[in-house]
Structure formats: structure tokens, C-alpha cells
Amino acid sequence: MKPVWVVDDDRSIRWVLEKALSREGIPYESFELAQEAMTALERATPQVLVSDIRMPGSSGIDLLTNFKKKHPDLPVIIMTAYSDLDSAVSAFQGGAFEYLPKPFDVDRAVELIRRAIDESTRAEQPEEAAPVNTQIIGQAASMQDVFRAIGRLSQSTATVMITGESGTGKELVARALHRHSPRSAKPFVAINTAAMPKDLLESELFGHERGAFTGAQAMRRGRFEQAEAGTLFLDEIGDMPADLQTRLLRVLSDGHFYRVGGHAPMRANVRVIAATHQDLEQRVREGTFREDLYHRLNVIRLRMPSLRERREDIPVLARHFLAKSARELGVESKRLTEDAMSFLAAFDWPGNVRQLENVCHWITVMAPGQSVEIKDLPEELRTTPGAVAEADWTQALAREVEGSLLRGEKGLMDKLSRRFEAILIGKALAHTSGRRIEAAHLLGIGRNTITRKIQELDIEGTRAAANAELENLNSESD
User: Fold this and answer.
1) Could you tell me which of 277, 281, 278, 285 has the C-alpha nearest to residue 295?
2) Confidence class of residue 476 from pLDDT cuts 50, 70 and 90?
3) Where are any strands of DSSP class E within 59-159?
């Protein structure tokens, strides 16, 4: 391993770091001035650079800039006794790995240096290529169903209803349907019907004549006219006011509409694609959504799966969004460690793909190093109840599978499934003090099934408690 370079005009700081690095078995080389390190850079390169920010002559920022020009992947830790905003911003803008204010805890400094060493080592390894697809990304079976549906609809102009939770990518699907349709050369116009008040929404959809209302200084074409011969995407259609639902129904029924304040009918040659995260059937039953409009819109339905239903897509999506954010910001793409990626894959993502994209952008801006660990992720992810626990057990399972495969073991599905079932049933019986019917109910299985599994799996520690109920259970029916 190459040495860690320590640059500081304070002899005591150099001495403390030299002793700490020596104790940890980490090679090092010390410099009193930034210019000395710049000169040394002509003959060698360090594994990590640790530098003070304010020194006689060239500053630590100058040194950081010089190092990054020649070795952009080299982790640089900036130290300073002046913990001010400008120094921190200058350090991070210059590409610093981390900012370490003085006085610092020696153990914390060594931990940070070790992380920087790991980062430097990973940077020397070839990086996995990020996906180049800028459209809808998905390898999960549920997404393949969506792709197939888009393909089947490629020659159709039928009305489509896209359902799914917020953030699942409904507008992306709508754009894909337009792009692969006979109307692709014409406009794609989108409007969120929940994002504006009723009076404004009516004008937005159908346009208005001059003088139709106060402030209408000129005639305005609405979204139906703007999308002529193309596609109109109505997002969050479930929130459309009742009277506008009636006007929309008329357009879909006879293909004509009137501008607000107008008297001449306008012809609408538009394909309508609607989307909602709401249960429209329930809203129809509640009387808040017109049943006839529902049937007009629900000609062909596409359901977008939530991100937690397609967890196998999370790694490829995360790498895509990290690469995208890096391109937008003009910086090097961050890399997630295996544990961090497993954590993200185990997270439930209530905001779905949109939330994952936002988190990846946060990581690109805020994570301290190029290699991102679990502790570098946003706090709200790490403190969500159950997130860490779920990540931990899935990681442990992954390690167990990998170890078994490396040892050449066979029959893993049966072996691990039996262990999994034994743990589930054993814990459920312990929770219910051996009451099998109650345990079976909690697990979602039948009484006969849990009794058979106890015998088949020879679950230790549960039989004694379970035997106390045996006579009662034998006299009961499922």
C-alpha cells in the first residue's frame, strides 16, 4: 500500500497523526508545507492525502486543487482549526473526501483515514458500467409485463388508464405509449388535474375566449387544442372536480368541446391517457367519480408496480440515478457498497422510484466519499422503523447463501427453506406460549399445517409448550 501523506505546519498535529498511523500499521510520510507535498507529487503519489487548510505559502485548498488535477480519484481529507462555512464549502467544491475540524478525536481521524484508504483502493478497481438506458428501467417480471403491454399497444390509439402508487413512473409509461404510437410525430401534452383549482383547470383543458372572465385579455388555446392529433395525458384524474368530469365525458363521447366563454364547437382529435394513484372503483361507489366517465377512461388498464414489488430492479435503478446525478452536476459518480445496496434493496420506498431518484441525488451531493456506506445514507432512511433490521437479516441470508455455494453445498432451497420455516414457527409458538391455533393464525397457515410442520421440522423448544394443548387441539376442528 502507498503511504498516507500528512501535510501540516503544526508539528504537534503531525506527531499525533504519525503515532496513530504507526500504531495502526499504516505507512505515512509527513510534510510541513503544501509546496513540499506538491514537489513530492512529481516523484510519487500517496494512497490518501491529509492536509491542513491554512499554512504558510500555498494553502490546503491550493494543494487539494493541484492533487485533484493530476489524480482526481485520490481521496483528500482537509483539516482546519477554523471551522467556518466558507472553508467547508471550498473544501467540498474542490473535491475533498471529508472535512475534519480541529481539535479532532484521534480515533475518529484514523477511522476516516481508513475509509479514505478503502475508497482509494476501490477507485483503482474497474468500475461497473452504468446503464445507458434513459427511458423506463426494469428487469422484474412485473415491469416486463408493462413493457409487453406498451408493445401490444404500439399500433393502437385506444384510451389507456394507468394506475399505481405515486412515484412509480406513470408519466414515463404515458410518454412511452405516445412515443411508440402512430401519433408519435404529434404533440404529447401533460396536465396534472390535481395541481390547480377548478376554474383554472377548466380554462387549461379547454381554453377560453377573450373576455370570458376577468383577466382574459386574449383568446387562449387549451390542452386539448395543443395536443391536436397527438396525446393528452391527464394525471391524477381521480381528483378532477365533478362538473369538469361531465365536460370531459362529453369530449370523449362525441369528440367536441367548447372553449370557456365560446359558442363554436371545437373538434378534438386527441388520444387520452389518464393516470391515478387512487382506487377509482371505490370513488365511483362513493359517488365522487362518474361511473360513465370511469368506463370511458378504463378501456385498457396498465398497473405500475410499486418499487417494493420489484426489489430486484433497485440496484440497477440506483446505479442509473447516481450516474445521472453525477452527469448533471459534472462530478464523478458515487458507488454504493454491497451493504448499502442491500439496505436500499430492503427498504420499502413509500415514494417509489421518485423517492429513490431523490435519495441518489442527495447521495451525489452530500455523501462524504465516492464509496457510500449505510451510515452515509440519509438519516430518514436509516431511522425508518424496520429498515435496518430488514436489511440486516437479508444481508445475513445473502452471506449464508454465498458461503454455502462457495463450499459446494447442494440442495440449498430445501435446506434453507426448512431452517426459515423452523424459525418462523418456533418464534410464533414462543410468542403464543405454545398455542398452535393462535400461532397458525399469526403465520397465515392452517392448524393441521402447523402441526405437520412441527413434526416434520422437529422444532426443538416448542414441543413441550405445544404438548400442553395437544388434547384440546385434537378435539377442535379447523
Assistant:
1) 281
2) very low
3) 76-80, 98-101
Across 19-106, the runs of DSSP E, i.e. the strands, are: 28-31, 48-52, 76-80, 98-101
pLDDT in tens, 171-214: 999 999 999 999 999 999 999 988 777 778 888 899 888 888 77
The total number of structural domains in the chain stands at 4
Nearest to residue 368, comparing CAs of 49, 99, 82?
Answer: 99
The cell numbers describing 129, all together, are 458500467
Q: Are residues 325 and 243 in the same domain?
A: no
Query: Residue 138 domain-assigned?
Result: no
Indicate which CATH number applies to the domain containing 212. Answer: 3.40.50.300
Segments in 222-337 forming alpha helices (H): 223-226, 242-254, 280-286, 291-297, 314-329
Tell whether 12 and 51 lie within a shared domain.
Answer: yes
Residues 252 and 318 in one domain: no
Distances in whole angstroms, Cα of residue 428 to Cα of each of 85, 203, 387, 396? 53, 59, 21, 21
The most distant pair of C-alpha atoms in the chain lies apart, rounded to whole Å, by: 91
Burial of 259 (0-12, 13-18, 19+ CB in 10 A): buried
Are 194 and 301 in a shared domain? yes
Asked if residues 376 and 350 have their Cβ atoms less than 8 Å apart, the reply is: no
- Whether residue 160 is found in the same domain as residue 101: no
Final residue of a structural domain among 80, 102, 123: 123
One domain, residues 320 and 297: no
**Average pLDDT for residues 206-224, to the nearest whole number?**
84
Q: At 185, which amino acid appears?
A: A
| CB neighbour list of residue 122: distance below 8 Å, 6 or more residues apart | 335, 370, 371
pLDDT on residue 473: 44
pTM, entire model: 0.62
- Indicate the helix (H) or strand (E) that contains 414: helix 412-431
Please name which of 300, 411, 395, 415 lies closest in space to residue 344, comparing C-alpha atoms: 395
* Residue that is last in its domain, among 259, 290, 305: 305
Residue 69 pLDDT more than 50? yes
For residue 418, being part of any structural domain is answered with yes
| CA dihedral of residues 386, 389, 391, 394 (deg, nearest 10) | -120
Q: Which domain holds residue 33?
A: 4-123
Q: Is residue 400 part of a domain?
A: yes
Q: Which three cell numbers stand for residue 251?
A: 369530449
